[in-house]
Design brief:
Distance between the termini: 15 Å
Number of strands: 2
Number of helices: 3
Strand order of the largest sheet: 1-2
Strand content: under 5%
Largest sheet: 2 strands, antiparallel
Helix content: 55-70%
Shape: elongated
Length: 116
């Protein structure tokens, strides 16, 4: 779980430590994965339509599924990185919000260590 800091802003944790923007995959790695994924998505069904050997079509399908797994994990990591970056800037209030946000309510709640 994430712990509140002195300003009420919580760090996003990754593997037990605060998430660091300098670690992990970056956007370059992500775009390479997406470009290769697009190529495999197009080429895999075409390999079956063009009567390529079954081993090649099967290899393309396996490569597509593995790359889909890695691209999905990279997307999740990058989304967590964006969340950590936004939390580091402190909470931003929605412009037209008449009510308090969940984060503001959490900050105002007494922190007696008891969770409901």
């Amino acid at each position: 779980m994430t712990e509140p800091t002195e300003q009420g802003v919580r760090d996003v944790e990754y593997k037990g430590a605060p998430l660091d923007a300098a670690r992990g995959p970056g956007l370059g790695c992500f775009w390479i994965q997406i470009a290769l994924l697009v190529v495999l998505v197009v080429l895999t069904p075409l390999s079956a339509a063009w009567d390529w050997p079954v081993a090649i079509s099967l290899g393309l399908l396996v490569a597509l599924l593995v790359l889909l797994l890695f691209a999905g994990q990279t997307i999740i990591f990058l989304l967590r990185l964006v969340a950590a970056d936004r939390r580091a800037e402190a909470r931003r209030r929605p412009l037209r919000s008449a009510t308090k946000t969940v984060g503001e309510l959490e900050d105002e709640a007494p922190s007696d260590g008891v969770r409901e």
